[in-house]
């Protein structure tokens, strides 16, 4: 295995050898592509050996070694750039001219004579994509731990180093969606077809790590008075990607076929357990727990025009508040802007974070609304991240309970508009100069609020005030301390069923239609508000989620009736309050 | 045409066709003693880099072509100092840097020349002389006048261009593109243009490249212009200048005429710029997002000796000015005495800007890319950030240095465009920049819908094919908001709105322009997907703004004035209506608008302008926008027993300005309900539904179709159609005649006729038909009737009555009112005392009538009588007293 060891520690040397072989075998030099030979050089288990930027800071690593990085593409505006991929040099020993590959590295050429006298054919020039990548925002600790087994020390390492790093490079801070959260970032140079990677997608790369040279930036920034400097990242490592894999939301967890059958068989049991767990989280309110469970299973299944079907946003109202009391807790809360001042939401967050791969808590305090930006915006061709620039499938807990009366500034209004649009249409506007671009998202929303939320959620469930266990005593609740094994089951359950395909058999479809027609007739005869299109759509969406939660990939009569009953329970709770319909 | 000299040395004196000699050259360059004696570069075996002479002349004459650097890159910090173009003082310098790749001209033919430095043959097949390119290197004695490394035969190129200038006529191009040919088009075009340039003293000639392509002899030249702009453009400049001087006896003062080529065959997408495009002439479209201040770019430095006052000029050498370390005068020779005199140095303007992709060019899910552009001399400050531009320029790449002080460079190139022509695709600003660039080419037609997706030829075919389909109308209306079920007529109405009628101006009669935009109002119960329809319209409309009535203020809709924080100047900022000029303005919650806001719409909806008169700015802005609005009825649910104006909190004048008004009522209808349920269930049937998309155009295609139709098709009313329109209108009016009673209801007004015309035009435009035919009118009249039937039906009589919309009350209502007042008057006269309590009168009145009279109707009757001076009301609220002012006897009169 010396070859693969070489590949990991001295990838450029190996690549040079490969390039020479490549030429010798008579291929055109421009066709040299490392991704095709990478598989031969690395056996599967070697992948574990490659250090990962997700867990190790680049400062701790030697430059020009092979690294992996699982990351989100935050900004594609840095490139593309044209570079010299092949260079002709005089071999001093033989005196002959020889081709050298400059792919996968930032090479300096000692003098310009080459450009003056030598002739560089067009084909020696190539184009590469340059993107800015960040570690997945809101990634839960357990998922990170999955990456590498000996995570503990590395995690410590990570948080320490990253804090140092972000302190030294102010630019990178604004490029991570969640302000104040430590993260890893890298400039990734993409070769080949992969240069068309879109913003917001998750990719996993294997590439050559390169440290940025500070002198570059001095030359680039130039005369600031006259020039239009492009953003530079003097302390961000550069990774030349040898291979790129685009990850789908589905791939967030490694799932075996066996897991799938297991989960689908045991769905009912796990569902009961998980319901209880969630119920305890919400003070024993099983209805809320049920709806939260359904929310966690939802995703955008298809987009049709302005509609995003499948996503289900939930509003939990009558949510109590409890300010953070003890000193230690306050210190902890101060650490980031994005920890809610409501101790109860923080607790719910910590529980959801345990079972979801990516989770973000968004406390809507005036401070957060007015000082941060929820949507990404481009200033001077630098795309600054917005809080909502998240990976697909991320669950966002919006905490409206911390919102108080006060002035909402311009930024705040825009933020609320952006959030509204994402909840309603699953579209996030990227603010570019003179134009806004809407990109599709798939974010789940749970909004907790005291009264009806100001966001147009699909449905709203009031928390039962007379619940068996008061929410306040959450921390003393033993039922929430469950084993890692059970948690693991929960995670698999949610992840697998979320991505299970589903359909409605013809007979049930007839039944639903019949019911709808009848319910409208009935309502009209009793001069009650007519059930609308939206009501039916909500029912259908819920029916889908209910079926999935029971591990069924098909809707049955019972499951549909179950859904209707669930809805009935919910609307009976709503009756004393205002309208049962989501606002228009 | 040329007689190739046997040796390069002889070539100068032995010009073939009209080759300028150095002497002639000096005619107009003589004021610049530093100029090289021969501006026309011949392949020369003298210089060690064969291209050097050529490049030098390019540098002399076209500073913007020689431009280069952005980032303080020493290799090239002056436009003249583009690595391959040495500057004046630099002629013949053997150390001239080059663009590393500029001279490898091998587009599309790569693999054949791996590693061989002399690769120019890859491209040369077409011309017999091209063999000379190769042989030239090996054997300079068989030289042809080709520019080294290219296929350009100088004499041939100059000859054909000269010929083009002398004899090109616009008719040649117009016959190719089937444009209308006017009489003057048969005259040679450029001599006329040049004489105009002479009068206006503009020295830049915008060269429409379509003309080059249309002229038989210059097709090859066009090709070369695209591939070797650096060489061809100076040649063209030179030819043009010579030609100009021959035509007119003027002293140019050493100035050169410059060619500004534009309208290339096709434009390159910014995303697709790659190494192949380097050093080629390309056109890109984009949005200017940033512009640097004007940079004074030093071209020549002026030094004076502090000791002896001897002065000297030093040119830029590879981006640097070398300060003389000692006085050049032999007698002085003092060291370190030369000092720079700033105000005698030569500077040129330069500006660096950044161009961003236009939204329509960006693939789905991608973010826009940017490219740097360099502007020189008179192009500086032509465009402002926010402008949509079509830039023609040379794509450049310069190597990046590791450090400005080092020679080490990186294997990385900075790319940018050296701009030769700017075309602003933004129509509104057209008037402003005519003077700057578009001056001579007033024939350039600017696309009207500049913001709209550009249809390339393949798509054009597709669109035309689609328009030929018999069911195109249905297909298009089905594709509009496919997620919304039924509502076919509403969708059709909205579809016609998107196409719009033709705008007309009758300049002869001096009447204002007639609007072609169709306004649509959707009224209906909550939950009938009005807002969704609106969102669709917003998405599809080529230029659409979406606002909500509740959140909009009058200024937010029209225009507002702010004070610029920096300059303290008043700035006019456009609101939603002005911004949607040429598109559709979607207004949700129309009824929730404040009255003040709504009142601004009166002007917009008929005159299509917004007038602003405040804070020292009095102006009228165009707001040629269709309005698509939706509103909820009063009390949120539609009352079937009330008429439209009574159900809607909207003033009748505004209501009448909507061409189409649709009621979307949530009726309980078993069949419709079932179909709706079925439709919705099918959405959820399977994940990733594919089935629903049958016969439905994707949104992008629909948008393209609409913008294509709007841009290219301007239907005119046909004779038959006009007659049919009259018939339809008369028919509609006739419905108001009622044999049983003498009174006349108004079933249609001229506004309806106008609507009908607009909609027929829109329908014809949808078919991409140049004339409006009877079938168009039939459909328009059907749609209009449907809409009228819905909204202008008087619920009390069940008949159509336009008065409902025009005045708020139908003729039936008016009669009832009059009756009521008459009865009340009669009742009043029966009382003995002259003053009666309000409540008592109401009760008595109610007793008398067999139908209950509500307070509002009663109040109306009382007020009507008060207006007739029959009675007088005193007091407030329920304690009001009514005093009779007349006696029963008086009424007898």
UniProtKB/TrEMBL annotation, chain A:
<dbReference type="InterPro" id="IPR019140">
    <property type="entry name" value="MCM_complex-bd"/>
</dbReference>
<keyword id="KW-0539">Nucleus</keyword>
<protein>
    <recommendedName>
        <fullName>Mini-chromosome maintenance complex-binding protein</fullName>
    </recommendedName>
</protein>
<dbReference type="GO" id="GO:0006261">
    <property type="term" value="P:DNA-templated DNA replication"/>
</dbReference>
<dbReference type="Pfam" id="PF09739">
    <property type="entry name" value="MCM_bind"/>
</dbReference>
<dbReference type="GO" id="GO:0003682">
    <property type="term" value="F:chromatin binding"/>
</dbReference>
<dbReference type="GO" id="GO:0005634">
    <property type="term" value="C:nucleus"/>
</dbReference>
Automatic annotation (TrEMBL), chain B:
<keyword id="KW-0235">DNA replication</keyword>
<dbReference type="GO" id="GO:0031261">
    <property type="term" value="C:DNA replication preinitiation complex"/>
</dbReference>
<dbReference type="GO" id="GO:1902975">
    <property type="term" value="P:mitotic DNA replication initiation"/>
</dbReference>
<keyword id="KW-0347">Helicase</keyword>
<comment type="similarity">
    <text>Belongs to the MCM family.</text>
</comment>
<feature type="domain" description="MCM C-terminal AAA(+) ATPase">
    <location>
        <begin position="472"/>
        <end position="680"/>
    </location>
</feature>
<dbReference type="Pfam" id="PF17855">
    <property type="entry name" value="MCM_lid"/>
</dbReference>
<dbReference type="GO" id="GO:0000727">
    <property type="term" value="P:double-strand break repair via break-induced replication"/>
</dbReference>
<dbReference type="Pfam" id="PF00493">
    <property type="entry name" value="MCM"/>
</dbReference>
<dbReference type="Pfam" id="PF21128">
    <property type="entry name" value="WHD_MCM4"/>
</dbReference>
<dbReference type="InterPro" id="IPR033762">
    <property type="entry name" value="MCM_OB"/>
</dbReference>
<dbReference type="GO" id="GO:0043596">
    <property type="term" value="C:nuclear replication fork"/>
</dbReference>
<feature type="compositionally biased region" description="Polar residues">
    <location>
        <begin position="1"/>
        <end position="29"/>
    </location>
</feature>
<dbReference type="GO" id="GO:0006279">
    <property type="term" value="P:premeiotic DNA replication"/>
</dbReference>
<dbReference type="GO" id="GO:0003697">
    <property type="term" value="F:single-stranded DNA binding"/>
</dbReference>
<protein>
    <recommendedName>
        <fullName>DNA replication licensing factor MCM4</fullName>
        <ecNumber>3.6.4.12</ecNumber>
    </recommendedName>
</protein>
<comment type="subunit">
    <text>Component of the MCM2-7 complex.</text>
</comment>
<dbReference type="InterPro" id="IPR008047">
    <property type="entry name" value="MCM_4"/>
</dbReference>
<dbReference type="GO" id="GO:0005524">
    <property type="term" value="F:ATP binding"/>
</dbReference>
<dbReference type="InterPro" id="IPR012340">
    <property type="entry name" value="NA-bd_OB-fold"/>
</dbReference>
<keyword id="KW-0547">Nucleotide-binding</keyword>
<keyword id="KW-0539">Nucleus</keyword>
């Amino acid at each position: 295995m010396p070859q693969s060891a070489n590949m990991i520690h001295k990838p450029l040397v190996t690549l040079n050898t490969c390039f020479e072989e490549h030429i010798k075998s008579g291929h055109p030099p421009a066709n040299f592509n490392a991704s095709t030979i990478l598989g031969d050089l690395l056996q599967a288990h070697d992948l574990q050996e490659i250090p990962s930027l997700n867990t190790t800071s680049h400062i701790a690593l030697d430059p020009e070694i092979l690294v992996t990085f699982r990351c989100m593409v935050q900004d594609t505006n840095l490139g593309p750039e044209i570079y010299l991929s092949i260079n002709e040099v005089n071999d001093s020993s033989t005196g002959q001219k020889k081709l050298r590959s400059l792919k996968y590295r930032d090479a300096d050429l000692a003098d310009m004579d080459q450009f003056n006298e030598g002739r560089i054919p067009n084909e020696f020039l190539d184009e590469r994509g340059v993107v800015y990548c960040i570690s997945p925002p809101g990634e839960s600790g357990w998922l990170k731990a999955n990456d590498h087994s000996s995570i503990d020390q590395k995690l410590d390492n990570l948080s320490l180093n990253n804090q140092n790093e972000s302190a030294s490079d102010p630019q990178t801070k604004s490029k991570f969606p969640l302000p104040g959260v430590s993260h890893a970032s890298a400039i990734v140079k993409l070769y080949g077809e992969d240069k068309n990677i879109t913003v917001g997608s998750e990719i996993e790369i294997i590439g050559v790590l390169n440290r940025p040279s500070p002198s570059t930036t001095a030359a680039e920034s130039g005369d600031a008075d006259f020039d239009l400097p492009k953003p530079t990242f003097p302390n961000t490592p550069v990774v030349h990607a040898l291979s790129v894999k685009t990850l789908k939301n589905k791939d967030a967890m490694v799932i075996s076929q066996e897991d799938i059958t297991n989960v689908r068989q045991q769905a009912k049991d796990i569902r009961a357990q998980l319901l209880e767990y969630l119920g305890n989280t919400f003070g024993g309110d099983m209805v809320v727990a049920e709806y939260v469970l359904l929310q966690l299973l939802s995703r955008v299944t298809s987009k049709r025009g302005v509609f995003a079907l499948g996503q289900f946003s939930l509003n939990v109202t009558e949510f109590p508040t409890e300010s953070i009391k003890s000193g230690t807790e306050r210190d902890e809360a101060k650490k980031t802007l994005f920890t809610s001042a409501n101790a109860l939401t923080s607790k719910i967050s910590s529980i959801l974070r345990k079972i979801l791969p990516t989770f973000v808590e968004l406390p809507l305090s005036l401070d957060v609304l007015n000082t941060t930006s929820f949507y990404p915006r481009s200033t001077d061709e630098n795309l600054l991240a917005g809080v909502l620039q998240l990976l697909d499938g991320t669950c966002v807990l919006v905490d409206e309970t911390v919102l108080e009366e006060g002035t909402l500034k311009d930024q705040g209004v825009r933020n609320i508009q952006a959030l509204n649009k994402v909840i309603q249409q699953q579209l996030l506007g990227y603010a570019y100069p003179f134009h806004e671009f809407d990109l599709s998202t798939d974010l789940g929303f749970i909004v907790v609020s005291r009264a009806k939320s100001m966001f147009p959620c699909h449905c709203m469930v009031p928390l039962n005030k007379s619940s068996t266990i008061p929410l306040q005593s959450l921390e003393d609740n033993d039922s929430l301390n469950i084993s890692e094994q059970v948690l693991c089951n929960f995670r698999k359950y949610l992840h697998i069923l979320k991505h299970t395909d589903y359909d409605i058999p013809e007979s049930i479809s007839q039944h639903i239609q019949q019911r709808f027609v009848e319910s409208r007739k009935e309502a009209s005869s009793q001069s009650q508000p007519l059930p609308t299109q939206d009501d039916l759509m909500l029912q259908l969406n819920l029916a889908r989620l209910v079926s999935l939660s029971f591990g069924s990939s098909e809707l049955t009569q019972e499951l549909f009736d179950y859904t209707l009953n669930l809805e009935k329970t919910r609307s009976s709770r709503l009756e004393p309050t205002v309208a049962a319909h989501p606002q228009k | 045409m040329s007689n190739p000299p046997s040796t390069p040395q002889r070539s100068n004196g032995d010009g073939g066709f009209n080759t300028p000699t150095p002497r002639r050259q000096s005619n107009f360059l003589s004021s610049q003693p530093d100029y090289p004696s021969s501006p026309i570069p011949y392949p020369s075996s003298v210089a060690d880099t064969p291209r050097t002479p050529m490049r030098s002349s390019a540098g002399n004459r076209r500073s913007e072509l020689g431009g280069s650097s952005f980032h303080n890159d020493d290799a090239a910090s002056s436009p003249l100092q583009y690595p391959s173009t040495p500057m004046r003082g630099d002629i013949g310098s053997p150390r001239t840097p080059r663009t590393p790749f500029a001279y490898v001209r091998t587009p599309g033919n790569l693999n054949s020349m791996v590693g061989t430095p002399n690769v120019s043959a890859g491209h040369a097949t077409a011309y017999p002389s091209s063999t000379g390119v190769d042989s030239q290197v090996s054997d300079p004695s068989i030289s042809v006048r080709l520019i080294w490394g290219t296929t350009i035969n100088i004499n041939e190129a100059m000859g054909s261009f000269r010929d083009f200038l002398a004899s090109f006529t616009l008719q040649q191009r117009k016959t190719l593109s089937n444009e209308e040919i006017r009489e003057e088009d048969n005259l040679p075009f450029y001599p006329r243009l040049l004489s105009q340039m002479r009068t206006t003293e503009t020295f830049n000639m915008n060269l429409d490249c379509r003309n080059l392509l249309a002229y038989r002899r210059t097709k090859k030249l066009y090709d070369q212009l695209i591939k070797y702009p650096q060489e061809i453009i100076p040649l063209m400049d030179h030819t043009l200048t010579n030609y100009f001087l021959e035509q007119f006896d003027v002293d140019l003062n050493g100035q050169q005429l410059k060619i500004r080529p534009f309208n290339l065959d096709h434009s390159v997408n910014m995303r697709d710029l790659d190494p192949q495009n380097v050093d080629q002439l390309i056109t890109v479209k984009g949005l200017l997002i940033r512009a640097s201040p004007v940079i004074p770019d030093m071209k020549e430095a002026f030094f004076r000796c502090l000791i002896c006052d001897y002065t000297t000029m030093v040119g830029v050498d590879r981006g640097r000015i070398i300060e003389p370390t000692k006085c050049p005068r032999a007698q002085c020779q003092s060291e370190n005495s030369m000092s720079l005199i700033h105000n005698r140095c030569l500077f040129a303007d330069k500006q660096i800007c950044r161009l961003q992709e236009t939204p329509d060019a960006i693939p789905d899910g991608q973010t826009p890319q940017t490219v740097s552009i360099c502007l020189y001399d008179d192009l500086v400050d032509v465009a402002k950030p926010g402008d949509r531009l079509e830039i023609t320029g040379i794509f450049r790449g310069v190597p990046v240095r590791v450090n400005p002080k080092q020679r080490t460079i990186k294997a990385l190139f900075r790319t940018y465009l050296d701009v030769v022509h700017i075309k602003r695709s933004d129509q509104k600003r057209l008037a402003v920049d005519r003077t700057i660039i578009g001056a001579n080419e007033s024939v350039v037609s600017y696309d009207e819908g500049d913001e709209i997706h550009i249809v390339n030829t393949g798509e054009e075919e597709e669109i035309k094919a689609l328009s030929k389909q018999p069911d195109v109308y249905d297909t298009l209306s089905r594709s509009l908001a496919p997620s919304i079920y039924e509502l076919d007529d509403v969708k059709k109405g909205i579809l016609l709105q998107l196409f719009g009628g033709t705008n007309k101006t009758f300049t002869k009669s001096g009447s204002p322009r007639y609007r072609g935009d169709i306004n649509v109002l959707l009224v209906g119960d909550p939950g009938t997907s009005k807002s969704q329809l609106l969102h669709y319209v917003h998405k599809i409309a080529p230029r659409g703004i979406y606002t909500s009535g509740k959140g909009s203020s009058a200024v937010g809709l029209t225009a507002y004035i702010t004070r610029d924080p920096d300059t303290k100047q008043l700035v006019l900022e456009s609101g939603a209506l002005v911004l949607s000029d040429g598109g559709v303005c979607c207004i949700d919650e129309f009824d929730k608008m404040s009255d003040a806001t709504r009142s601004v719409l009166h002007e917009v909806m008929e005159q299509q302008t917004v007038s602003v008169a405040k804070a020292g700015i009095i102006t009228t802005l165009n707001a040629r926008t269709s309005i698509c609005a939706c509103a909820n009825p009063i009390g949120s649910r539609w009352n079937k027993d009330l008429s439209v104006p009574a159900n809607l909190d909207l003033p009748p004048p505004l209501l009448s300005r909507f061409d189409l008004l649709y009621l979307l009522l949530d009726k309980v209808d078993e069949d419709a309900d079932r179909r709706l349920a079925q439709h919705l269930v099918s959405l959820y049937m399977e994940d990733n539904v594919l089935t629903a998309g049958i016969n439905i155009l994707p949104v992008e295609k629909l948008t393209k179709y609409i913008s294509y139709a709007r841009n290219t098709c301007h239907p005119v009313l046909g004779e038959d159609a006009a007659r049919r329109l009259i018939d339809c209108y008369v028919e509609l009016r006739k419905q108001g005649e009622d044999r049983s009673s003498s009174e006349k209801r108004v079933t249609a007004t001229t506004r309806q006729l106008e609507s009908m015309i607009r909609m027929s035009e829109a329908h014809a435009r949808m078919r991409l038909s140049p004339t409006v035919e009877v079938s168009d009118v039939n459909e328009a009249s059907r749609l209009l009737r449907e809409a009228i039937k819905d909204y202008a039906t008087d619920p009390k009589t069940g008949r159509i009555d336009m008065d409902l919309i025009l005045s708020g009350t139908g003729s039936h209502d008016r009669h009832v009112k009059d009756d009521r007042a008459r009865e009340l008057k009669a009742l009043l006269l029966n009382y003995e005392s002259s003053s009666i309590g309000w409540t008592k009168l109401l009760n008595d009145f109610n007793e008398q009538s067999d139908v209950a009279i509500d307070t509002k109707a009663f109040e109306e009757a009382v007020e009507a009588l008060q207006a007739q001076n029959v009675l007088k009301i005193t007091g407030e609220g329920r304690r009001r007293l009514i005093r009779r002012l007349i006696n029963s006897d008086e009424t007898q009169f």
